[in-house]
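Notebook p. 47: complex prediction with iron/sulfur cluster.
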Amino acid sequence: MTETLPALVQRATELSRDWRLSSVRAWKQRTGALAIGYLPVYVPREVFHAQGVLPVGLTGAGDDLEIIKGDAFYQSYICHLPRSTIELGLNGSLDCLDGIVFPATCDVIRNLSGVWRMQFPSKMSRYLDVPQDFDRAMGGVFYRHELEDIAREIHERGGRKLEAEALRASIRVYNENRTLVRELLTLRREAPWKLPTAELYVVLRAGLVLPVEEHSAMLRRYRDLAQADAERRPRDQARVVLTGSFCEQPPLGLIKTLERAGCYIVDDDFVPVLHWLRGDVCTEGDPLANLVTAFLEDSIDSPVRYCGDGTKGQELVQRVDESKAEGVLFCAPSFCDPALLDQPMAQAALDGRAIPWTSFKYSENTGQFHVIREQAGTFADSIKLWSEA
Ligand code: SF4
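Predicted complex, structure tokens below:
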């Protein structure tokens, strides 16, 4: 039977909350291959895929898990994601993973990689250092060496040797996935009532655990079903860009609350690994060099990426313009240094263009949204009043 829109969204929601990784366990039973986890915000999944490995995006346990042991590893003034990651490791939820890659996002992730290595010494535990120098001869050489080293370690643990032709084929598969993601993000900008963010979010997030080919099929089906749904009509909501949620993800209830409070989220930072590269990676020539070049020269702007003096916030302003947004929600995890240190510069850039903004924080297990609902609702109302003045 052909899957309906509610059934597809339900399946995606279950996958997005599948922190016990039951779908990954089933995949491993079917294939007998390796599955390797990765923390936000970006890893080159093409390398894993070309080695026959399932890359599995880890984003904690949301509001579904009580943290008991994980809290003992971190100070109270640290974000929530590393606590729930440790909790999931200690309660066996991540046992099916053959290793975890920790990309250089912030000090918290760096420390988490060390804690992980001590707690699970038999598993692959790899810190992926990424360059903050974007010169091909400097950062490019460094990054290529990192990728080759990870590929070698995966091969030693049972993955296939990284071969150029296989990597080229994997790049093609991920290019297709990125094209679909971009298409959906564009459709949402054009008609956010057709693709509500709370729905699009779970459909995108399912891509963290599904094999990329299955995820692309889900994206295609969702695109067609959402566009064909004639019941979905525009409402008088304020168009906003949401920024700051690139690593620890907000609970789904928070996204729904913002939409119910009168906001159309027309651009956001959620699940950045899916759209970290702006365009296609070249499939001609040396595929590893192409992945490196794409990272150096075609990554999105992010608080975890070096950006020259005086340019912070410019891309946010550009996103506001391109999405025809009327305001910005700064929505960052509590104690997220990269997001919160960038925020004043981004706010100054918005102020320079008289773009309204408001700011609040969350953690992945935030359970009460009443205050945020009032704040976002007031913000949306005031935007509608200003824009009609
Ligand atoms: S939420 Fe922020 S501080 Fe916490 S691990 Fe992610 S980037 Fe680092």
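Notes: Residues 79, 81, 105-106, 108-109, 247-248, 333, 336-339 surround iron/sulfur cluster (CB under 6 Å). The chain has a mean pLDDT of 95.
Next step: compare against the earlier run before touching the bench.
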